[in-house]
């Protein structure tokens, strides 16, 4: 929301004129009263003009209409009372007092119209009761200090009616002030409503001071100071519509009520109680009033405790998620707004649980709630106390990191923590996977813009692969519409013959002979041309199309390789979605039998993150391996598996990720991770295959480290099977001997 900047030309002119005229009245006592009264009149007239102009610019048109009418009533009251003072009839006096009273009524109505329409149901009654509590405290003070004194003194009837009318008017102004404060119309002190509230408070104070002077003193020394307060009140009441005219602003949300305004009701109850004690003691009337006061104080204390508890419960309902106990979207938006007002640099993490719908479908909503609750617990356990954790949607969470924390480290901790703490659902164990998008806060950020950037990063992380994080980059674009269109085109692509398979040889590093081939799917789109796997595989994974595509690639690869001489094996990738499908073993064995390929010539590659979830994948892998099919862990070292998992997995091959191969530079540092993977595989008696070999130096270093098999562009790019077999034949023919 935009904030009030009192720099408009009318505001500057008004403030300058008021300051100049009041300085003049200070130096020229003879013209002091005319200047004071004239200033109030002119400010009221300006207030009428700007209030009605604000009707067109403000989201609260009726409030400004009523305020404009109130200021007009004050102007009319001035002229009517001036007429009475110039030997007018007594009816003019009563008309002037009535018009002045109407001003107070209209101001109270304007304040109620400002917030009451937005408050509904029981909240409306609670809101009105809070106003009544504060007004009652004010009425107690007015009764003791003004009304009681007026009745026992020899005040003339006309003057008494004026005083009583102004007391009622002051109580109405108090009601107007409370209506704005308790309704949350002043969410922060720099809001445009500030001068309106300040003007009402100053109007009430000066009016009370005026009445007190009439009742208790004949001195005129305080008149100038009181008059100056009236001028200040009129000025503030005029600056508020100017601020609204300068720039239109949306309605203030109900949850923007500041915490300090809630103490107004408590202070009112305490004021009433203290007055009862003071009066009982000073009037020396302990019996029977002493016992009644004590009992009333106990009642007030009980009301205050009840109100505090109810208020806390209401706040929790507004800003907290009832399932996880974390903040909800409203609570997160409040935390972002507070951090922005404080100027604290920070970051936002947006988290989406991967495949949460599958858990809900497989185990039911109660199990889904358990997963959400446990994730919320893990989230809270890895961040600082001052960080805000929130659940903002079904399976979407967010973390606001104010201050100087490193969001990448926090994202890594979250992913590691949830991977290390699987959730028990009956007899099964489910490991939670998540995708995290993070972005840094920037000066001038709105909540919407911050969430948009984090959402883009989160979607990019989800596309890149399950259980990962991504930082927002300005080059990121929202691909959801494009991915949706791609998913539509991908449906039926295999049946239309648009999907085809290329093969990259897996060779012995020392001699270059092909021991097997990795089957890699490609998509020849009729309009887009060849679509990169990085573009359509994530879409297929999220939409569930990956299962049918995977079976199509498996059938094509097994059928192609069954007739290849020399009995090389074929390696086919399995996605996490396929691994979680109960019918996978049956479908794979059916394809193998139909193609005629021997099971020991098939290697199924699974990613490291997919096999961490032992409930969904471990039994499947064991059963596939029992039929002679070998299992390879793809991109080993980039996921979250541990030695504990690895020793229990039915794995035959570890594939060294291409990023580790790229680090090989002939130094111990560059070879550290690749060597660690090779040594681990040797201890566990597993084969290693290095991916992404591009230079002869990398091949020699891998061979020296103990890795004897690899693949990469040094040997061959992915090709159609016929070209791959021809290249292998030519290699053998060119080999000496």
From TrEMBL:
CDD domains, A to Z: EAL, GGDEF
Domain GGDEF: 344-474
Keyword Transmembrane helix in record: yes
Superkingdom, natural source: Bacteria
Keywords: Membrane, Transmembrane, Transmembrane helix
Annotated TM spans: 35-52, 64-85, 91-113, 125-146, 166-189, 196-212, 224-243, 264-281, 287-305
InterPro entries assigned: Biofilm_reg_signaling, EAL_dom, EAL_sf, GGDEF_dom, Nucleotide_cyclase, Rev_trsase/Diguanyl_cyclase
Domain called EAL: residue spans: 483-732
Keyword Protease: no
SMART domains referenced in this protein's UniProt entry, alphabetically: EAL, GGDEF
Name of the protein described by the UniProt record: Diguanylate cyclase (GGDEF)-like protein
Species, as recorded: Paractinoplanes abujensis
């Amino acid at each position: 929301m935009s904030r009030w900047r009192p720099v408009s030309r009318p505001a500057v002119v008004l403030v300058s004129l008021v300051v100049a005229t009041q300085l003049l009245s200070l130096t020229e006592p003879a013209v002091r009263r005319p200047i004071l009264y004239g200033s109030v009149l002119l400010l009221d007239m300006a207030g009428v003009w700007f209030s009605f102009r604000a009707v067109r610019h403000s989201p609260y048109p009726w409030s400004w209409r009523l305020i404009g009418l109130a200021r007009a009533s004050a102007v009319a009251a001035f002229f009517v009372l001036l007429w009475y003072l110039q030997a007018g009839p007594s009816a003019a006096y009563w008309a002037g007092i009535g018009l002045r009273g109407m001003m107070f009524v209209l101001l109270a109505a304007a304040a109620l119209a400002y917030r009451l329409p937005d408050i509904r149901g029981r909240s409306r009654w609670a809101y009105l009761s809070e106003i009544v509590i504060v007004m009652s405290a004010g009425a107690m003070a007015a009764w003791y200090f003004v009304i009681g004194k007026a009745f026992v003194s020899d005040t003339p009837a006309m003057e008494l009616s004026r005083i009583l009318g102004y007391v009622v008017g002051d109580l109405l102004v108090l009601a107007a002030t409370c209506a704005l404060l308790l309704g949350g119309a002043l969410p922060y002190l720099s809001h445009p409503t500030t001068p309106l509230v300040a003007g009402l408070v100053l109007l009430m104070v000066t009016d009370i001071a005026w009445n007190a002077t009439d009742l208790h003193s004949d001195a005129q020394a305080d008149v100038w100071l009181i008059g100056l307060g009236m001028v200040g009140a009129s000025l503030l009441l005029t600056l508020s519509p100017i601020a609204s005219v300068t720039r239109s602003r949306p309605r203030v949300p109900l949850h923007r009520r500041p915490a300090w305004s809630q103490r107004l009701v408590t202070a009112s109850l305490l004021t009433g109680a203290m007055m009862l004690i003071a009066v009982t003691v000073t009037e020396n009337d302990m019996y029977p009033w002493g016992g009644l006061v004590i009992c009333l104080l106990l009642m007030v204390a009980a009301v205050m405790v009840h109100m505090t508890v109810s208020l806390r419960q209401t706040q929790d309902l507004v800003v907290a998620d009832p399932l996880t106990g974390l903040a909800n979207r409203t609570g997160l938006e409040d935390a972002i707004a507070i951090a922005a007002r404080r100027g604290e640099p920070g970051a936002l993490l947006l988290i989406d649980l991967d495949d949460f719908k599958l858990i809900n479908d497989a185990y039911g909503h109660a199990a889904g709630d358990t997963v959400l609750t446990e994730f919320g617990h893990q989230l809270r356990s890895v961040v600082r106390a001052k960080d805000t954790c929130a659940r903002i949607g079904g399976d979407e969470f967010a973390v606001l990191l104010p201050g100087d924390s490193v969001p990448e480290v926090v994202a890594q901790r979250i992913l590691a923590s949830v991977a290390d703490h699987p959730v028990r659902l009956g007899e099964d164990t489910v490991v939670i996977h998540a995708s995290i998008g993070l972005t840094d806060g920037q000066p001038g950020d709105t909540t919407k813009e911050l969430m948009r950037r984090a959402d883009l990063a989160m979607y990019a992380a989800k596309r890149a692969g399950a259980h990962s994080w991504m930082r927002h980059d300005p080059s990121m674009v929202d691909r959801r519409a494009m991915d949706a269109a791609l998913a539509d085109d991908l449906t039926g692509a295999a049946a239309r013959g648009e999907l085809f398979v290329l093969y990259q040889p897996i060779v012995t590093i020392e001699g270059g002979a092909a021991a097997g081939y990795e089957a890699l799917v490609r998509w020849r789109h009729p309009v887009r041309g060849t679509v990169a796997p990085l573009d359509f595989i994530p879409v297929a994974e999220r939409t569930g199309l990956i299962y049918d595509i995977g079976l199509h690639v498996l059938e094509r690869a097994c059928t192609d390789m069954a007739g290849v001489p020399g009995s090389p094996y074929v390696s086919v990738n399995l996605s996490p979605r396929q691994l979680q499908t109960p019918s996978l073993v049956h479908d794979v064995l059916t394809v193998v039998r139909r193609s005629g390929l021997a099971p020991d010539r098939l290697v199924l590659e699974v990613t490291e993150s997919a096999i961490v979830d032992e409930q969904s994948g471990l039994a499947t892998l064991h059963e596939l391996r029992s039929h002679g099919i070998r299992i390879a862990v793809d991109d080993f070292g980039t996921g979250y598996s541990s030695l504990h998992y690895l020793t229990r997995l039915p794995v035959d091959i570890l594939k060294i990720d291409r990023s580790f191969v790229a680090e090989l530079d002939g130094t111990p540092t560059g070879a550290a991770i690749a060597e660690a993977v090779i040594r681990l595989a040797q201890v566990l008696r597993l084969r290693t295959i290095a991916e992404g070999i591009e230079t002869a130096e990398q091949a020699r270093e891998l061979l020296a480290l103990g890795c004897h098999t690899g693949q990469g562009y040094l040997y061959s790019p992915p090709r159609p099977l016929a070209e791959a077999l021809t290249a292998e034949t030519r290699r053998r023919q060119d080999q000496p001997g």
